[in-house]
Design brief:
The complex is a heterodimer of chains A (165) and B (518). Chain A has 165 residues and is α+β, with helices and mostly antiparallel strands. Helix content of chain A is 45%, strand content 11%. Chain A is elongated, with a radius of gyration of 17 Å. The longest helix of chain B is centred in the C-terminal third of the chain and has 19 residues. The chains are: A alpha+beta (165), B alpha/beta (518).
Chain lengths: 165, 518
């Protein structure tokens, strides 16, 4: 959900996963809240967590795997230090988001969903961040930015890269 | 805090996206440097996004607004007497007298931008809980009848009468019923749910409790998309405060009624805005839609009777109860009663939320109130009702904004989002994007949507490339017809609407590359 820097994640562990499950066990339909919390704790959903969740929640592995892979938020491996989500919805398109997207891909030298080789930035596409009157919008580490043109985008990236160093 | 000047800086995500936090920090810093006492309130947004960050200062003559304020300009503004409400280059006068606000009928958004969103005291002193108090004195049937009488229709997009939905849940016997609030506002060009949650979350809590009293539900779930971290944080805080104040919990406002409210967060799936997919997601499954019937009102969340309503529908309920059904139904036209919160978005000069009674024309809203495009170029097309809404040319600008008038021309008001494009837009690209978006976001349950969208992209590409144009045009129309008639839900069913409208109104954009003549 809210992206954090990788430094704040802990390594995957069975014990901590079960702690999270125990916290939500009595809720109705607890799988989504559990997955959100695991991702916030570990930065991704470990493949071993799928088996564990299935047995703990009395679900089939296919059910859990299905949920993890259906929703774009749940990652199967860690993201870079910072995640930039670039909006490609219609409102942002009308203000040049496609040009911004092309610029972002070129500037970072990666595709959507990929991480820069230095591990500093992961770029994701998103369809609407709800900032449609201040387009184009991007979200940087869970913080919304509006009226982002190419130079502002470069500033954001440079800041993130400088911090990663 | 005697002698302190109250200064309002929005905490809304849109305002923060253009520097509201930095402005708030600068105000605290610069005031301290000048030995002035300032009481900083982080309010919701007034909805005039082009003026954000909009700073308001409390004066003996009411609140005075400045905007758009930049953090580095705060010191200068203070030297020019901002804390006394003095005029300067960013001075907008008394907030209440700003024409853009004065011309609105703020029913659902009556408190947004005015109060501190998380102050229970602000909420109550500004009319909050009056609807719930009245509902507690009524029978469930009386509450449902009041909502039916108001003419309130679902604000999520479909416009289904809220009272009729509630009646079905009330009439379906079950010892366990649910209220599910759909805050999965995924349509591009819409942000009213987000602004309401960030600006007045208690009204949603109150609306959900009233719905629960009306149908006999004991649990409620708010499903907010993960792309809205600020709304999620504000809503969770509001729920916690509502529990602390006894507005929800085992004894709602000291009555014998119990209502528990939970927040759930989506995970990046547009389809979860479809009500049955949302229910699946709430149950912890993939957001795959369910075939209807059974209606969620009869077998919804965990198979129980469930009211599924949009944020704005539920937020309209407390004022309907507080002021009576007639106050609401007096507004509007035809069968579109009350107000709609329009969202002016995209390439527009004066973008933001604009709550007004139904019936205004599209042109008045876009050119008059919205001030035309942000780029200063002529408007070419507007898309109303999100990614599944039709593209409308300026020749239709006399179209009145009401559900039926829009339906007549194959368009929809939807959730009230209006995205404006200037004359640089390539409508064949927009048509292609509609199919691309559907391919990306389809849940995959039904074939017309899952495969039709992929084929749609290919066919549009061939048309634009000038390959077998006529054959591919009729193929595209066939495909649109299949998707519209045979898809299980609105995702596949309405994707043809932007495609067809682009083809109908802007055929020249699909004809740029002619096939080489033989």
């Amino acid at each position: 959900m809210v992206s954090k820097t990788s430094g704040s994640y802990v390594p995957w562990s069975k014990e901590r996963t079960i702690e999270v499950v125990d916290k939500h066990r009595c809720e109705r339909g607890p799988l989504m809240p559990i997955l959100h919390e695991l991702q916030e704790m570990f930065g991704y959903i470990d493949p071993d967590a799928v088996d564990l969740l299935a047995s703990e929640l009395n679900l089939s592995k296919a059910d859990v795997h299905g949920v993890v892979t259906f929703y774009k938020d749940f990652r199967s491996d860690s993201a870079g230090d910072s995640v930039i989500r670039l909006c490609r919805g219609e409102a942002c398109q009308s203000m040049g988001a496609e040009e911004l997207a092309r610029h972002a891909l070129e500037h970072l030298g990666i595709g959507f969903g990929a991480t820069t080789p230095d591990g500093a930035v992961t770029l994701e596409q998103v369809f609407c961040l709800g900032n449609c009157a201040l387009s184009p919008a991007v979200m940087v580490e869970g913080r919304l930015k509006g009226r982002v043109d190419e130079s502002r985008f470069d500033e954001i990236v440079n800041e993130l890269k400088a911090r990663a160093r | 805090m005697t002698g302190a000047v109250t200064v309002f800086v929005p905490r809304d995500a849109a305002a923060r996206s253009v520097g509201a936090d930095e402005v708030a920090d600068a105000i605290a810093l610069e005031a301290a440097a000048r030995g002035k006492q300032v009481h900083l309130v982080r309010n919701g947004s007034r909805g005039m996004c082009w003026l954000e960050p909009l700073v308001e200062v409390s004066t003996p003559h009411g609140r005075v607004a400045y905007g758009p304020v930049e953090a580095h300009g705060v010191g200068e503004l203070m030297d020019a007497g901002m804390l006394d409400g003095a005029p300067n280059s960013l001075w907008l006068g008394q907030t209440d007298e700003i024409e853009h606000l004065k011309r609105q009928t703020r029913f659902s958004f009556s408190r947004v931008g005015i109060i501190d969103p998380l102050s229970a005291e602000d909420y109550e002193t500004n009319g909050g809980l009056a609807g719930l108090r009245r509902a507690l004195e009524m029978t469930p049937q009386q509450i449902v009848s009041e909502v039916t009488k108001s003419g309130l229709r679902g604000r999520g997009g479909a416009g289904f009468p809220t009272g009729v939905k509630w009646q079905t849940v009330l009439d379906t016997p079950s010892e366990l019923k649910f209220i599910a609030c759909n805050a999965d506002e995924g349509d591009s060009g819409t942000f009213a749910d987000r602004m309401l949650i960030e600006g007045d979350p208690f009204v949603l809590v109150e609306g959900m409790v009233i719905a629960a009293l009306a149908v006999g539900a004991s649990e409620g779930y708010v499903y907010i998309r993960s792309e809205y971290p600020d709304a999620i944080a504000t809503m969770q805080a509001a729920i916690d405060i509502a529990y602390l104040n006894g507005w929800i919990g085992p004894t709602v406002l000291g009555s014998s009624r119990a209502f528990d409210l939970y927040l759930r967060v989506g995970a990046g799936a547009y389809i979860c805005g479809e009500e049955t997919a949302m229910l699946e997601s709430l149950e912890g499954r993939r957001g795959v839609i369910r075939a209807k019937p059974p209606l969620p009102a009869i077998a919804g969340l965990f198979g129980r009777p469930t009211v599924v309503n949009n944020v704005l529908s539920l937020a309209a309920v407390p004022p309907v109860l507080a002021e009576g059904a007639d106050a609401y139904s007096q507004l509007g036209v035809g069968r579109s009663r009350g107000t709609q919160v329009f969202q002016l978005a995209g390439n527009i000069k004066h973008g933001g939320v604009y709550e007004v009674a139904f019936g205004l024309s599209l042109g008045e809203l876009v050119e008059g109130i919205g001030g035309g495009t942000a780029s200063g170029r002529p408007v070419r097309a507007v898309q109303v009702g999100g990614p599944l809404g039709a593209y409308i040319p300026t020749s239709h600008f006399d179209l009145p904004l009401d559900y039926e008038a829009f339906a007549l021309v194959g368009a929809m008001v939807g959730h009230g989002g209006i995205v404006v494009f200037d004359d640089t837009v390539d409508m064949s690209r927009q048509a292609r994007f509609a199919m691309e978006f559907c391919a990306e976001e389809s849940c995959g349950k039904c074939t017309p949507c899952r495969l039709g969208s992929v084929r749609g992209v290919e066919v549009i590409d061939r048309i634009v490339a000038g390959i077998d144009r006529e054959d591919n045009m009729s193929l595209l129309e066939d495909l649109c017809e299949t998707m519209a008639d045979a898809s299980l839900c609105a995702m596949g069913g309405l994707t043809p609407s932007p495609v067809r409208s682009a083809l109908e109104h802007f055929p020249e954009d699909f004809n740029k590359f002619r096939a080489p003549s033989l």
